[in-house]
Amino acid sequence: MKKLFTILFFFSAFISNAQRTMFTRNNNLVGPVVPAGPSIITNALVFNVDAANTSSYSGTGNVWNDLSGTNNIKFYSSSAYNVNANPTFSSDGGGSLVTTGIFGKSINNSGITGSVARSMEAWVKFNSVAGNAAISIGGQVNSQLYELMAYSNNVIEHYWGNFTQSSTVLATNTWYHIVIVYDGTTNHYIYINGVQVGFSATPTLNTSNTPIYIGPAVTTTWGAFDGKIAALRIYNRALTSSDVTNNFNVLKTRFGL
Predict the structure, then answer these.
(1) Residue 139: pLDDT band by 50, 70, 90 thresholds?
(2) Sheet harboring 103-109: ordered strands across?
(3) Residues 78-97: what's their mean pLDDT?
(4) 101: Cβ–Cβ under 8 A, 6 or more apart, which residues?
(5) d(CA 156, CA 170)
(6) How many Å apart are CA 71 and CA 217, to the nearest integer?
(7) Residue 191 has pLDDT above 50, yes or no
(8) Which one, of 163, 124, 123, 139, lies nearest residue 248 by Cα?
(9) Which of 33, 87, 168, 200 is the most exposed place for a label (fewest CB within 10 A)?
């Protein structure tokens, strides 16, 4: 009997150890591995501000911090950029800045120069769709400016002396995800809410190295951006259509889309 008890004891210990080994070495037997959800494309991302992220905007003050760590935006009361002003924080769109009447300018130059490929991305709500620039770089010389704006009820990729126009008619007080893309040759693209809505082949750009502007670059022809801006991004490469779709899908529920 004692011998039988000893055999049963060692058999029980073996089974217990085998089960423990199975459950520690084979995670799939403990529970399913949940894959990470989609995230914003970060490849070649050189500028990234988001009002819903407290690391980017605390809710007060005149500085919008760049989450990519290379540039920050400061806000001013005029296009002279010499008197500080604070945007109004809004919970609309999960967190956005009301920039009506104030101008933004980065502390450093964009680094986007010449004909280098680039993409600009914005989550915006327009109060006006006529001559309303959200983000821009460059100067007032043919092919030097690069600007994302609303003009005559359409999205315009504006590059001073020429432009690409969307086929989509914009509405005021509506959140849009807008991306403009230049591929470094002559091809220009516009996307709204993940869908390509504009294309043109124009002369090669020659953008001058300037700060990033919230609102119109350099020019005083138009005033400050009139509306709300939730997030802005710049890439120093041409985003693909799948990149654009990914970024739209990541945040669309935040804006009720």
Answers:
(1) confident
(2) 63-64, 73-76, 103-109, 211-214, 132-137, 146-151, 154-158, 163-169
(3) 94
(4) 77, 85, 223, 224
(5) 11
(6) 16
(7) yes
(8) 123
(9) 33
pLDDT tens for each residue of 208-235: 999 999 987 665 566 789 999 999 999 9
Displacement of CA 199 from its chain's centroid (Å): 20
CA 70, 105, 47, 158 dihedral sign is negative
CA dist 99 and 62 (Å) reads 11
Q: Where are the beta strands (DSSP E) in the chain?
A: 45-50, 63-64, 73-76, 88-90, 96-98, 103-109, 118-126, 132-137, 146-151, 154-158, 163-169, 175-182, 187-192, 195-201, 211-214, 227-235
> How confident is the model at residue 63, as a pLDDT?
98
Question: How many residues can be counted in the chain?
Answer: 257
Q: What is the DSSP letter of 59?
A: S
